[in-house]
Design goal:
37% of the residues lie in helices and 18% in strands. The chain is of the alpha/beta class and 391 residues long. Helix 5 packs across helix 6. The longest helix has 18 residues. The two termini are 23 Å apart. The structure holds zinc ion.
């Protein structure tokens, strides 16, 4: 599946053999011309497609938000939970006191579960430390967990995730800590920098200062933008040449236009939209403007505890209005593009040997819609990550 290879938006090819060698794709073509292989997998009646790219997660944390889930179901607003030290801040407390072995064990478990559902590349943000040593530790744990599980991890520094309790009355002091103490220590472990810009989080001005500083150290820029309120963060992201602006439920025409001109990718997070009961982002307007659409789980313990990327893809279709093709590309090639990676999320000769064999629903034809129609029902037969068959 590669738009440049075969038929249609997904670049579909029928009746081909794919040969992998080490961690690379060696051959795609007719079986008669395929080089001999040591091990064969029969994918007859199935779709072979790129490993999924989950380009927005917060997969390293400790603690439970189960009680908060109950309270939110009972109608307590998140703002009140946050006021009482719950929400992100309770995860920060649990994460700070967990220690490296526990954090690694928990992250490994989550990555294994994502991988079993077909994820071969994942982006992981920090942001549950909110002080230099723990922020750095979270990114180290993210990389180590990826190494142990055998999938590719991109790391993002998100010191600007929430204002810690101790800085509530002096937020400027926290912004200064992010800039002067966290960033220099964390930057060598991060591929990207992110900021959560919204009501109750950071202002556009605070976010811009932090993102510019990260960009100055060579980190790619991504932004949590326009989720709960319209702030102008998407237009700011575009101005900074951000790779992605994520969420976008409240983006306006100006933001869409700026993103389209800058080539900034819209990362849609239907898990968070569903859990928070938010209105969907204006997908029609984004599509019309030519903004590329990626889809991710936003895996986190509070607003999007989603461990199945296929559920995110299905929700992107039914709650946000993506087409089947947009959802599949959003979890593969566009997800990789959002990470500044033009080889992952595609099956291409010379590209990474990250491929899935997915069966259609039993008794149904081999068509892409069968991959996203059944909520949580996608039948992933085989996952090959970095050339290794995952059992
Ligand atoms: Zn997020």
């Amino acid at each position: 599946m590669d738009p440049s290879l075969g038929e249609g938006e997904l670049g579909r090819l029928d009746d081909v053999t794919v040969v992998l060698s080490g961690a690379r794709v060696l051959f795609i073509g007719p079986d008669a011309e395929a080089p001999a292989a040591r091990q064969e997998l029969d994918a007859t009646g199935c779709l072979l497609m790129p490993g999924l790219v989950d380009c927005h997660t917060h997969a390293v944390w400790a603690g439970s938000r189960g009680k908060e889930f109950r309270r939110r179901l009972a109608g307590v607003p998140y703002s009140q939970i946050l006021e009482e030290g719950g929400g992100i801040l309770s995860t920060v407390e649990a994460t700070r006191s967990a220690g490296e072995p526990t954090l690694t064990e928990l992250a490994v478990d989550r990555l294994q579960r994502l991988q079993a559902r077909g994820v071969t590349t994942v982006e992981i943000k920090s942001g549950y430390g909110l002080e230099p040593a723990t922020e750095r530790l979270l990114l180290q744990v993210a990389k180590e967990a990826g190494r142990r599980v055998g999938l590719k991890v991109f790391t993002t520094f998100l010191g600007a995730h929430a204002i810690p309790q101790a800085f509530r009355s002096n937020r400027e002091a926290y912004v200064a800590q992010v800039l002067e103490e966290q960033l220099p220590i964390v930057a060598p472990y991060a591929d990207f920098i992110d900021a959560y810009i919204d009501r109750g989080a950071f202002t556009v001005d605070e976010g811009e200062r932090i993102l510019r500083a990260g960009s100055g150290l060579g980190l790619g820029v991504r932004v949590h933008a326009e989720q709960v309120t319209h702030t102008g963060a998407a237009a700011m992201a575009a101005r900074l040449g951000a790779l992605s602006a994520d969420h976008l439920e409240q983006i306006d025409a100006e933001g869409i236009d700026a993103m389209a001109k800058a080539g900034t990718i819209a990362v849609l997070l239907p898990g968070a939209q569903a859990y928070l009961k938010d209105a969907p982002p204006p997908v029609g307007a984004l599509r019309e403007a030519g903004v590329p659409l990626a889809v991710a789980t936003d895996l986190n313990p509070g607003s999007s505890p989603v461990l199945d990327p296929w559920i995110a893809a299905t929700l992107a279709c039914i709650s946000m209005g993506l087409t089947v093709e947009e959802a599949l590309l959003g979890m593969t090639a566009r997800g990789a593009d959002a990470l500044g990676d033009s080889v992952r999320g595609r099956v291409r000769v010379g590209g990474p040997a990250d491929v899935l064999v997915v069966a259609p629903p039993r008794g149904e034809p081999v068509e892409p819609e069968g991959l996203v129609q059944y909520l949580g029902g996608t039948r992933v037969r085989h996952v090959i990550a970095e050339g290794r068959l995952v059992d």
